[in-house]
Amino acid sequence: MDDVTNELLASASKRLKGNQRRQFQAEVCTKLCGGSPRQAEQHFGWGRETVAKGLREQSGEIEVVAHALRRGRQRSEDANPQLAIDIRLIVEPHTQSDRELRSSRQYTNFLAGEVWQELFEKGYSEEELPQRTHDTRHSQSPELSTQANPKRQATEKDGRHRSTAKVT
Fold it and tell me: pTM score, two decimals?
């Protein structure tokens, strides 16, 4: 096999993901490398464990199950539907409509940390509540959230409101 063919097959494999990639690699390995994952690794630069898994899937030795949708942490509201109801009860008194009525969305000035604290005081344990994060502007106090609103930054530096109107 020449280098151009090897590069082409390696490039084609990179464009595929997950099960499709393993199926492709297993098929190429079977036809061009005599079913040897080590040879496929040498010729194409593929991980031999991945090729071997593809070969096992191809032979029916193992079953292919896509778990992509099940990965990650389950939403707290899905695990505990009462939590979603309690969040709405806490936040709704502080919500307002879009002032210009361009959308039907509701807005609140209630911070995520404040909602978390209210739920904690209501009797939820830390394990039942969503994880507290301190690196997002939604959970930070307004003083720390100046990147979201540059006008606020100028106002909060010296505690006075500065007009942004241009004076001529």
Answer: 0.42
